[in-house]
Amino acid sequence: MKTEHVNQIASAVNAVKATDVKNFYFVACGGSMAALATGDYFLSREISVPSKVYTSNEFVHMNPRGLGKGSVVILRSHSGTTPETVAAAKFAREKGAVTIAISMDVESPLCKEAEYIVHYNYKDGSDVIDGETGVYYSLIFGILNALTPNEKYERLLSQLKNLENLFETNKKLTYDRAFKFGSEYKREKLIYTIGSGAYYHQAYSFTSCLLMEMLWIHSNAIHSGEYFHGPFEATDFDVPFLIIKGEGPTRPLDERAITFAQKFSDKVEVVDITELDYAGIDEDLKEYFGPAIAGAVLRQYADGLAEHTGHPLSVRRYMWKMEY
Amino acid sequence: MKTEHVNQIASAVNAVKATDVKNFYFVACGGSMAALATGDYFLSREISVPSKVYTSNEFVHMNPRGLGKGSVVILRSHSGTTPETVAAAKFAREKGAVTIAISMDVESPLCKEAEYIVHYNYKDGSDVIDGETGVYYSLIFGILNALTPNEKYERLLSQLKNLENLFETNKKLTYDRAFKFGSEYKREKLIYTIGSGAYYHQAYSFTSCLLMEMLWIHSNAIHSGEYFHGPFEATDFDVPFLIIKGEGPTRPLDERAITFAQKFSDKVEVVDITELDYAGIDEDLKEYFGPAIAGAVLRQYADGLAEHTGHPLSVRRYMWKMEY
C-alpha cells in the first residue's frame, strides 16, 4: 500500500484509539452506504462497541441521540461531492464526533468537512490494495486491531495484498457463468436479489446501483431470513432470483432460501462464495475476504446483463443530468 | 388498558429499570420485525443507549458481540410460534440478556422461552389500546420514561387511549382514497413503496407482508433518502409508487422523493400522514402517533387492492401450507 494511504489510515486509527469510543456510525448513500455496512457487520461480530448504519439525509434529520463526543462517524462518497453526506460530516463534526471521510478525491467537499481523510485510488492501475476495498478493509481491521489487538487481524491485514490477484482470478473463474446469466436473464424486467450477513449489503448494492440504477431492471434486495416472512409468496416459476450463498455464519439462511426458491422458480442464479478462489487467504479469514471478493464477482454479472441487453452500465436518464 | 397488560408491561419496564442497560436488540421476522423497528427508531431519537434491529435468524447466526448481560432483547411474534424468533429468545436468554416477548398468545413457545411476557389482544373487540399498537407503545414509552423520566412520555402514555377513536376516524377519512387506489392500481404487477424515519418500517411492512405476501404484487420498500442514489433510475411514466409523506423530522426527505416521482411517473399515490385526524393528541406528540395511525390507514390501501383484484388478503400459496 502506498505510504500516503498508510499514513492516512494510521492517523484515523490513532484518533479512534485515542477516543473513549461510545459508538460508531456509518453514514453514506446508496452503494457507498452498502459498502460501509460491511464494516458495521464486522464490528458487530467482533466487538461490543455499538455501531449503526444511516443513509446520510436520515442521519441528519432524525438526529440520533447517541451522536456526540465519543462517537466515531465514518462517511463515504466516491466523488466526495454527495451533498447529503457532506452535510452529515459537518453535522457530526459540530456535535463533537470523530469524523473520518473516505473518498477518491482528497480535495472534495466531503474531505474538507471531515477531520480525518482516507483516500483511495480509482482507475489508476492500483485499484485493489490502494483502491476502495483494500483501503476500507485496512481502516476497519486497523480500528479493530487497535481496540482489541488480535493476531487474526494482523494476519488479515497482511493478507490484503492478495486481494488484487483474487479479484483477477475470481473474475476469470466466474466470467462464463456471469455472461451466461446475462444472456439468459436479458429479457427480465425484474430480478430479485437475496443475501444475508455481510452479503446482504452486496445484494442491496446490486439491486440499487446495478439493477435499478444502471440497468433499469426492477428489483428488491431481500434478506435470506426475511424471505420466508412475506416476500417468498411472490415466488413463481417465472420470477427470477440472484441469490448470494455466503461464506460465513449466516450461510445456512442462504441455503434455506435457495432450496425454497429453486423448488418454485425456474430462474434461480446462485453465486456461491465458497466456490471462489481464496489463494493466500487462511481458512479462518475466508469469511472476511468473501464479501470483498463478492463485489468484484457480482459486478461481472451486471456486465453480463449490460452486454446482452445492449444497455451500458454508464447510461443514466436522471442522475447527473438534472437537479433533484 | 386491562390490568393484565398493565401488570405485564410494568414488570418488563421494571426489569429494564433494574438493569444497567448496555444495549437494546429488537428481534423478530417480517411484519413483526418492522413493527419492533418503530421502537428502535424512537429509542434512537430519544436516548443515547444503543439499539439495533435484527431478523431473528440473522441474530442467532451472526451472534452480535454486544449481546450479553446488560442487553435487553425485545422479541415479537404474532402467534408466538415463529421458530426463528423462539430460537432467538432462547439464545439471548442463555447469554444473560433480559428478554421480553410480545405476542397475542401467552401460552406460545416464544412466551415460554422469554423471561418477560407482554401479551396483546387480537380480534376480541379491544384491539387498539389492549391490542398490538397500544401495548407496544406502552412498553416502549414506559421504558423511555423509566430511563429518562419526561412529562412528554407521561402525556403520550395518557393519550394512547385516543388511539381506538383515531384508528376509526382515520380509516373513515381515507376509505374512499384507499379503495380508489385499489381500483386504479389493480392491474399493476409491481408497486414500489417509499418512506423514511419510522415510516420506512411501515413501507417495509406494506411491501413484504401486504403487497408481496398477501397480494403477490412485486415490490421494494425504498428509503426516501436512498431513492436518489440508485433506485430512482427505475422511475418511468408507468412505474407505480406508494409514498408515505411522514409526520416527523424526516418529512423533507419524503417531500423530495414525491416531487421527483411525480415529475416522471404518472402513478404516484401519496399518503400524507399530516392530513390525518389527531383528535386528542398534543401537537408535540403527533410525530409519535403518526406511525401508529399510519399502519391502520395503509392496511386499508391493501384492502382496496384486495377488493379490486379479487385476491383476498387471506390467500397464500406457500405460507402455512408446507414445510419450508
Automatic annotation (TrEMBL), chains A, B:
Q: Record's InterPro entries?
A: FrlB_SIS (IPR035488), Fructosamine_deglycase_FrlB (IPR024713), SIS_dom (IPR001347), SIS_dom_sf (IPR046348)
> One MF term from GO for this chain?
hydrolase activity
Task: Identify the EC number(s).
Answer: 3.5.-.-
Which PROSITE patterns does the record associate with it? Answer: SIS
Q: Which BP terms from GO are recorded?
A: fructose 6-phosphate metabolic process; protein N-linked glycosylation; UDP-N-acetylglucosamine metabolic process
Annotated SIS domain ranges read: 12-149
Keyword Hydrolase in the entry? The reply is: yes
Q: Which UniProt keywords apply?
A: Carbohydrate metabolism, Hydrolase
Q: Tell me the Pfam families matching this sequence.
A: SIS
Highest taxon above the source species: Bacteria
Per the record, the coiled-coil ranges are none
Record flagged with keyword Hydrolase: yes
Q: What does this protein do?
A: Catalyzes the conversion of a range of fructosamine 6-phosphates to glucose 6-phosphate and a free amino acid.
Q: What quaternary arrangement does the UniProt entry report?
A: Homooctamer.
What is the name of this protein? Fructosamine deglycase
The organism named in the record is Heyndrickxia oleronia
